[in-house]
Design a protein that fits this description.
Chain lengths: 498, 498
């Protein structure tokens, strides 16, 4: 058989496997949005059956044979090599883990979630510690099964961000930490403070219409997506079926608006992947850092800008005249850009958020290197929290027990959030250099140049390059925290008069 | 390995296959209810990938080996034998059709739909005839692949209603036809006529609340199901996740109400299947005739009864005081029980509906026996329509081209609708014999006795018995049209004063 026809059969197969994965994602969406309360068990059984069928397809021996042929083939194009490389990652992950290990880990993940929820409610870290130690052990074994012995934490990071390493992150975060801690302290000390509860009583239907208008204007295509309500906002799906969720509180209209814009940023990335290549490396996202760069760029650099609000403020006032009557433009803009250190990551503003991530990264690194025992985590957390945020959690519920991630062994995920913030800022300044009048576009409700630029240089690239290479290609520079520091200093330094 | 452990492995496997089928159903539901307009192609690709994975599981050679062992095993219980029998049907269907045939038939099904839609719009039966002939040929080949050579139409019927045959149906329908044609003529000649447009301007939100209250009262469990809006009403899902759909028109409140009750009847059946056996013959429905008997019983015998409306009428009036002010109780009840022969099956009332089915069955029978050429269908349709309904379609759009079913080769499906009506009436009189005060229960809003009785004697039986045997077991009699004739005569004879 010719290389060409092997390559065609091979890509057809991996696209099928990917499609099965998207079916699983749709089941997950449906579970959060639609599932009748009594159907949880049946849905878990459906997901398990689908996971079994997907695994059977992903580990099919024909795939292994095709990969061997293609890896030995010298005539492949660079794009084809990228596709083969990604498929090899997926195939190894599907075939190199012993079935007993996969089962034991899945069971542990489920136990872990419940142990975490119980421990958090009871402020009982000691009750959770053995589960966490077990998760750490599973993670390290998994890394070794896949050939990452001695670089276990790099493996955990690479799962979410292909090509990224702990050493690179450590260097970037150290620099960011150095510059960000003083900025957060200065903002915290500022006498400028948003007026609490300035925005109240926004009816849900009005919020829904407003955020739909805003996200459509930014460029989220509702002919290829939708938005619904769930407990926690998220984005799922890809290509021509991308689904966002949000939640509504009458007294927190900015929460639903900005979480929707954030998810729409993810969604526009997925909608911008090249349809013909969905499921291969040319048609999947480049990793979680790049994904977060898209959500954060739209949420922060764009949607918290003066320019965007010159366009949106009149429309917000027209839609909610009574609710906005007593709120000045400056008050509104300050509410949109509130900065206030908090103990809780998910409540954090865009400045301090990065410090929450640095804290978790540093602890994960020490856990994986053996330099920190699980039992010593709460103390280490409190110390870091003091050093980074200037706040010490009064108990573990608002400290080391606050996040769900570690309960099912999702180590190495946190750094993506902060890497995404860095990349977003770096992309932003590159875009501004190319089109200085960007905020004037926004004021007119025109976001098309920016979306077009991202489409061309980020979205349609798929996973051809890892995050670091993509950054070089698009911005002409190595990924660096200096752009994020510059952006935060410019925007918040002025606003908080520091 | 012991028989017991073979049986356990075997049932675990067929439950997985069934779960994958339910995932496909959920994708279908989502397509009708949620799918963004631009996502049709991607959804088709997801369905195809899932169908491939499901087929791989359904045709797994291990299943064939287990079946051989179990079929040779003398110690199985009757329940176990029923499970093995059904699994054999499914396994043969998954393995005995050549892959090329399955692909060709799927492509033909899709072409067929478009050819039908085009032909219907253009009133061009001649353009559709070759497709129909091809569908007929595919159906006959499929029957022969599965060992039904010489009994091809029986195969088509058996697919939907295990155990049913054309000969049985022909006998039942002939008797029904004999009694029903004069009844329909008499009603059509009656001077009693519902007032057109008596019910107008019912706001959608109010309709939604009312039908939800009614269906919940009948016994549809909204903790294990939901109702949404789609273009055509349907019911899908099983066990603890059953999904109904309806549609709303402000000037046709009875349309959404009764279609919802119909679908809720299907849904209560699915909710009543024994959860522990979902996916085996003990936990799937007994065929489409029994399924229709459940939807029709709730929709017609129950929800069009005087008793039920003694309870509901005051609530309808309270919910819609202005809309019902000028409508007397008799007018309301007559609107609920309107009978008027029409050319279009889906618009037909419960009396004439059966004649539409008899017409289609008789034509299908002649098509499969070779006694009728596809080219002669339109003429045969017009003749039958005159004989059965006393109406001749002015063109094929409202005649032979009206139904989608044949366009993808779904022959043998129509009879289930009418068999279901027969069984519903027979179940109804059996229930009344056991509890004569049934309508007094209904008037109090109490439908629990009837649901409990159906749960015990129909729902929890799964597919242990075919429709004919189930009928014997529950009613003590052979399935017969006489109960349907009696019911229609009693209800409509009185109402239309004939």
């Amino acid at each position: 058989m010719s290389t060409e026809s092997v390559y065609a059969e091979f890509t057809a197969w991996i696209k099928q496997v990917h499609l099965l994965g998207t079916v699983g994602e749709l089941l997950g969406w449906d579970e959060q949005v639609n599932l009748p309360p009594g159907a949880a068990e049946q849905r878990a059984a459906q997901q398990a059956a689908l996971a079994g069928a997907t695994h059977a397809a992903a580990s099919d021996p024909r795939l292994g044979a095709w990969l061997k042929v293609l890896e030995a083939e010298a005539t492949l194009t660079a794009d084809q090599r990228a596709v083969v490389r990604q498929a090899r990652r997926d195939y190894d992950r599907a075939t190199k883990l012993p079935a007993e290990f996969v089962q034991a880990k899945a069971a542990q993940g489920s136990r872990g979630y419940h142990a975490w929820a119980r421990a958090k409610a009871a402020n009982d870290f000691a009750g959770y510690a053995p589960v966490l130690a077990q998760n750490l052990e599973f993670a390290q074994r998994e890394a070794r099964y896949l050939g990452w012995g001695g670089r276990e934490y790099d493996y955990m990071i690479d799962r979410h961000d292909p090509g990224m390493t702990a050493a690179v992150i450590a260097r970037l975060f150290a620099e960011l930490r150095r510059d960000l801690v003083p900025l957060v302290r200065a903002i915290a000390a500022s006498r400028v403070r948003p007026r609490p509860g300035a925005l109240r009583g926004f009816p849900v239907e009005g919020q829904r219409a407003f955020l739909r208008e805003v996200t459509a204007q930014l460029g989220f295509d509702y002919a290829r997506g939708r938005i619904d309500v769930s407990l926690h906002p998220f984005c799922t799906g890809t290509g021509s079926d991308v689904r966002l969720t949000t939640r509504f509180k009458e007294d927190e209209p900015l929460d639903s608006l900005f979480s929707s814009i954030h998810e729409a940023g993810h969604g526009m990335y997925e909608q911008g992947l090249p349809a013909a290549h969905l499921g291969t490396a040319l048609g999947i996202h480049a990793g979680m850092a790049v994904h977060e760069s898209q959500s954060r760029l739209w949420e922060n650099q764009v949607a918290r800008s003066r320019g965007a609000w010159r366009g949106w403020e009149p429309r917000l006032r027209a839609a909610f005249p009574a609710q906005t009557a007593g709120v000045s433009s400056d008050e509104l803009y300050l509410a949109i850009n509130e900065v206030s250190p908090t103990l809780i990551r998910v409540d954090a503003d865009e400045v301090t958020y990065n410090l929450h991530i640095i804290l978790r990264f540093e602890l994960e690194q020490r856990l994986f290197s053996g330099g920190l025992a699980v039992a010593d985590l709460p103390g280490a957390w409190r110390e870091s929290s003091q050093a980074l945020l200037g706040l010490v959690p009064p108990d573990d519920r608002v400290g080391v027990l606050q996040d769900v991630h570690w309960s099912d062994g999702s180590f190495g995920y946190f750094p993506s959030y902060c890497l995404g913030n860095m990349l977003a800022a770096q992309l932003w300044y590159r875009a501004l250099a190319l089109r200085p009048a960007l905020e004037e576009d926004f004021a007119r409700g025109d976001f098309t140049w920016l979306l077009g630029w991202l489409r061309e240089h980020v979205h349609t690239q798929g996973r051809r390059h890892d995050a670091l290479e993509l950054c070089r290609q698009v911005t002409g520079e190595e990924l660096s925290p200096k752009h994020l520091v510059r952006y935060l200093t410019e925007r918040y330094g002025k606003l908080y008069r520091i």
